[in-house]
Automatic annotation (TrEMBL), chains A, B, C, D:
GO terms for biological process: L-methionine salvage; methylation. The keyword Membrane does not apply. This is Hcy-binding domain-containing protein. Pfam families: S-methyl_trans. Zn(2+) binds at C204, C286, C287. Residues 1-301 form the Hcy-binding domain.
Length: 396, 396, 396, 396
């Protein structure tokens, strides 16, 4: 499921949807591969709106969601499932695709506008409890609290989900600088585990390299506190060397001009290997991940997992299929050393390589961040446009 | 159909598959939107192999092909259809999707290894005629000769297809420098029309801007020769400012590290507008085009066509849905001026912006280009690897 | 001398000053190394104004001009001299520095505002003749017509200078696309030789690589016409891959933000070698060349010339002095392979790699290009500022 | 003087030479402008060797040193002087240029190979005392300890210099991450002031922006410790966004391919303004600074200082002289808004924007860093070359 939580009923922002993977399997030493790029992939395929990002596709176009599930599943067991849904419909699709497979279904919650608007613990927990009720009724296998920018709210979510008695995973969308109140990643991890999470990590907001640096800090924090948990990582499929602590949403390119930042399959293989070496066993991806990126994780870790994904029937490792190309210089690219060392050109000589993220200095509690019932008016937009001037790498 | 021709039975290289659009509709002043990015999209979705690029997906995974058809169709009439197939299976899928819609089905051929290996006109035409027989049997609506690097072979293809009496479109994968024998675009266009084509243009190999420059030269050539034809354009969805006359296959990034070059939807809108202004009425895309790129063409030309594509139900023009985002600086991006003028950063500060294309100076007739029955041997590959050294922007 | 011509009394624009090298020496097979970067070097040292670029330094700060002469002279014979001056003062300095050395002094003329304002042949030749009189009186060794954008005016200049009976060199500031009326480089070279020039080539406006491509076309033009002349090349020390036919003055960075484009000494060595291989024997540099760039030419061609320049006493070839550095990884840079293959980073991740040149579409005869006696008024400037908007990579 | 200390007799590495400015003047509220780019400027002019960087130019080419003094002095009072010398000769030149001007002469010391080789406090202080003796004999006005990577050694230097009773300035070549033992900038500043320095700051190793961030941390450290000192800043004239804690020497481009990183005069004006706003009153530059960069500081701070530098006679502020250019689009550049907002292109589309610094993980005490009496042998170099492979952005 996940998406119910991912994009809560009260209207949340973009986030990386979740894929489940059970605590028990991780305990048994399995590697779990998660794909959370569903919303942004469905936007490009025409089923989801950018802005509200509500994945009503689960209800309106179940065949499209099923098709994407199929492309993204990296193996016959289809462990990664149940991702996009609006409440019950999503659960039903996930259950159906998982049916007859040895698969798990997860239900998830994510950060709430309620918290950002400054409400108290009881009010925020009530929102989470409402969502939890559906997941319990549908009897999902485990629960995920994901996409949190503030550890305080994330811990509230974990505490609420833990009331169900099911295993809980928890990820934050933070980088090495920590949460938006400045709590460092190591301390965040400690608080999540103390609140009841048995899997902790990061998702969304930053590129693979940055996410691994963050999880490393989490791991070190847990070790220093003598706590134990499985580690999880679901980065963007976009390079974000220029992101500050607030992540890719502040980049001027978000969400409609991120193309030049898309990672290659080789970037993903490198990421999967480093994640594995770091001790992470729930290795996935978030916004921007396409089925071929997920396949790259599965191919890189095939030696450890003992099998190649089904999708690799049409994909020779490290470009080996190119040995059949008609041009000899393309045949010469049929090897690991070539792709591993290539520095791909951007093909955009009039564009910079980095951006200055927008960041208007407004934080929790600021008037501009208050939830409003009505659509933004023309007048409000015009005022925003004025503020924007001189703020990004617009040429005009 | 298209793909049957696009990737001929005797095993062709990558090319941009075709989408049909009838001469009669163009005669009547309609705009036709074509999507030819099927093979590369199916590779990423896991159904096609890079290297041989044979789209057996039509037989093996018809549901995946149908799904992609649905996402790419930019309107209720589903004019653009029947694209990927292996001979008859492809025809059948195309016919099925078109059924009940006011749609056309096309059959196509493309350049042959036979020609590159130096065989004569009779032998090459025999190959085309063999393919034509299937299309005639399945009674496709019109025919396409596409993805030709040499005008000589392209003209032979048009002459063969024209034997059927059906309308013929013809595109070459050339840039402003002309075909690989140095024949300029204007002269190529003239020869194609004289051979019988009623629609001429370019597909694949170059980015939108370069393709438009090439079609402009074709148009000028036809005008100078007082000939008439409809114009057609199906560029890559990759920026290729660094490509020489041989196109993107020679770029070191081809085919597995092209991500940084992917065009944005705004690049596509700009392209669609300029193509329209240039007088092109068959406006499509080739490798790299995803459904949201095709949607961008349809959105840009909605005023001229009189309607928005179905896919735009979930896509406000020029980012207008962002007015509902929670961050005020993202709401400020909900307007045309923002996206139109943004210079997107690559997020890759360690990479260059342009590449030197591989080009080993081998041409038609060279031993290395000869078709060989057996797979490339390990020894042959090693010799190629040695040649490659110092040839591309590999860091090592 | 040179500069007197280079920046004529009636107020010319920036141009690359000239350094002489005698026809006789070239005839005898010598290589001549010329440095024409004086004006822009003196601007940075504080002796010349950008805009008018009049090198009154010769009169006001003769010691600065002498010092720069000394640094730039690449050998004890000081062949390259007499560069910047205002009429007679410049001649006198050049003669003084050349005194006691086996050196030559040249006088030069360059394109005139008179021609751009549309005056006829007689009027333009009268300007050149006036300058020639001073050179004849001071008995310079040879004459140069340089920095011409139109072959018509350049040929007039050569014809005038040839009246003196002295050898004449002629360079144009054009690229491979030819002069501003579209006359190709090969045809320009032919006309210059027919007008009386015994040395022809290019100076200023383009980077070393582009200049060599242009001279190659000149050479081919002369060969086709069965004419003979020595070849000469004085490129910018700035990379200009993005320049159109009008050269670097149209780049938005001209003249005060060209730093990121400055060539390295290794770029210059590569240029010198390629120039030599192409048959060019008058190998120099123009705007942007600093003494260490000139030294690099002399070092690269030391084997052919038989000696190293004096300045190399403090400069080991290919970084060999670095073998004495304290850091081991810097010592590891003490070799040719390192510097030859290094792709230097720009350190400017927020900037693009290429620019779109300004080019307002005004040409000879346009009102905006008319010479005006009075300074540009505030009102005129404001109108220009308005035109500029949206024209360059200004961020605001 | 400065340089005698800057490049000590026992053979130091590259560093930015110093220019003096007296404590008394700073106490009185004056702004002091310092130029420390002498060694690298003289290398390009042909008088100094890269590698050993010993400025024997003071002895061998006093006229070249005097000429550079003259170009760099930003005002008639010639406050900034006495920079490059070898011991006494340098003092003599500095005294001569300062003669008749209201100018100060400084003597300086910098970090020693002795310290890096692991010697104790007494040995290191003996080196400094030996240099101090010369400065005392020549009666310089004040003393500078500069270019230190370790606060321990810097404090020893300040303590030694302070024995003379003269005012002492102290700068370290560190960034925001602190000294090479990890001592943060704020703590470094505190220790320098406690050792006796009345002016503290940074020089060399990092670009203007990074240096200002470091000085800001120093300032905050002093405020927290309730200590007082004047602040000083002498950054590189190279952009170094990719430098780690060890500075620009580790960049693969050091020292012979730094051209693309050179700052513009507008970068310098921005730096000068921000430095002033931060409370820095000794505002200068180090390696890479040319006379026109120093002029830019003086022009930016002309309102505060009450006068323009002499060099500005030939340099209109913010490009105003361009109003006299012949091309209208260049005249349109005659204004502050243009240059202030321009993002200059690098003109290097095949190069990256950032580099990974070399850093072999060797620190104080490592065998490879030990001072050796003999030149590096061929064999030693070969071993270094092997280590280098895969370490930098070499293409091969």
């Amino acid at each position: 499921m996940g998406a119910a939580g991912l994009v809560p009923a009260d209207g949340a922002e973009l986030c990386g949807p979740t894929s489940g993977g059970g605590k028990e399997r991780l305990d048994a030493g399995e590697i779990v591969i998660g794909d959370g790029g569903f919303v942004i992939a469905l936007e490009k395929r025409g089923y989801v709106k950018a802005g509200p990002w509500t994945p009503e596709a689960a209800v309106e176009h179940p065949e499209a969601v099923r098709q994407l599930h199929r492309e993204s599943s990296d193996e016959d067991k289809l462990e990664n499932n149940g991702k996009i849904s609006v409440n019950e419909a999503a659960c039903d699709i996930a259950k159906e695709v998982a049916k007859g497979e040895d698969a798990l279904v997860a239900g998830g919650v994510s950060q709430t506008p309620t918290y950002l608007s400054g409400r108290d613990e009881a009010e925020v927990k009530a929102i989470f409890r409402q969502q939890l009720d559906v997941f319990v009724k549908k009897n999902v296998d485990f629960l995920i609290a994901e996409y949190f920018e503030h550890i305080e709210e994330a811990a509230w979510a974990v505490e609420t989900l833990k009331e169900s008695g099911k295993p809980v995973a928890a990820t934050m969308c933070i980088g090495p600088e920590g949460d938006l109140h400045g709590v460092p990643p190591g301390e965040c991890a400690v608080q999540l585990v103390k609140a009841g999470a048995s899997i902790v990590g990061v998702n969304c907001h930053f590129d693979p390299e940055t996410c691994l640096r963050t999880v490393k800090l989490m791991k070190e924090g847990l070790e220093a506190a003598k706590l134990k948990a499985h580690l999880m990582s679901q980065p963007l499929a976009f390079h974000t060397p220029d992101c500050g602590k607030q992540g890719f949403i502040d980049l001027p390119e978000f969400p409609f001009a991120l193309e030049p930042r898309i990672v290659t399959r080789w970037d993903v293989q490198k990421y999967a290997r480093e994640a594995y070496n770091l001790g992470i066993r729930y290795i996935g991806g978030c916004c921007g991940f396409e089925p071929y990126h997920i396949r790259a994780i599965a191919e890189e870790l095939a030696p450890e997992r003992g099998f190649l994904p089904l999708a690799s029937e049409k994909h020779g490792s490290w470009g080996s299929d190119l040995s059949m190309h008609t041009k000899p210089w393309v045949r010469a690219r049929a090897r690991k050393e070539y792709w591993e060392n290539l520095m791909p050109a951007s093909g955009r000589p009039y564009c910079p390589s980095m951006s200055k993220p927008d960041n208007w200095g407004v934080t929790k509690g600021a008037a501009e961040l208050m939830q409003q019932k009505e659509a933004t008016t023309e007048q409000q937009l015009k005022e925003l446009f004025k503020k924007q001037k001189f703020k990004s790498n617009i040429v005009a």
